[in-house]
Amino acid sequence: MPRSIIIFVRLVDRLNYGVGRFAMYLLFVLMGILLWSTISKAGGAPSLWTLEMAQFTMVGYYILGGPYSMQMGSQVRMDLAYARWSDRKRAWWDAFTVLALIFYLGVMLWGAVDSSIYSLTYNERSPTAWRPYLWPVKLVFCLGFFLMILQSLAFLFRDIATIRGETI
């Protein structure tokens, strides 16, 4: 494989590993928000912002953790025949399926970018009492989908290397 592709794959892996490790700590932020919500409700003065902030934090946790989950291979797979195949046959199948994944993620990224542009242009706000701006969470979607596309491309390059009898 060309050196530039090897550098790309290693850089994407390092980037998604770091973002994924950061995203794991968002679970603690979420717990803090929910704890504050519980305390404020028990104190008789419920906070308006806690429910939506918990939802936004969960979006970041889920979307930014997605590429890391892909990288670690912790997604659910159904491998009735896959486990018995050779590495090369698995690489052919993975290269085919990752192309479908890249197409799907591309459509999702397109929708996220379009929605983010709308949100930024019109200062879109949530219709709740707290009324936060929605563009920050929409940008998180854009970033997450972009990182997933990069991780999918890294998988594709690894599969091509395996088909060629090389490793990255």
TrEMBL record:
Function in brief: Part of the tripartite ATP-independent periplasmic (TRAP) transport system.
Domain Tripartite ATP-independent periplasmic transporters DctQ component intervals: 30-161
Subcellular location as annotated: Cell inner membrane
A Gene Ontology cellular-component term: plasma membrane
PANTHER family: 2,3-DIKETO-L-GULONATE TRAP TRANSPORTER SMALL PERMEASE PROTEIN YIAM, SLL1102 PROTEIN
Name by which UniProt lists this protein: TRAP transporter small permease protein
Membership in a protein family: Belongs to the TRAP transporter small permease family.
Bilayer topology term: Multi-pass membrane protein
Subunit relationships: The complex comprises the extracytoplasmic solute receptor protein and the two transmembrane proteins.
Pfam family of the protein (one): DctQ
Transmembrane segments: 21-39, 51-70, 91-113, 133-157
Keyword terms of this UniProt record: Cell inner membrane, Cell membrane, Membrane, Transmembrane, Transmembrane helix, Transport
Protein's UniProt keywords contain DNA-binding: no
Superkingdom of origin: Bacteria
GO function terms (MF aspect): transmembrane transporter activity
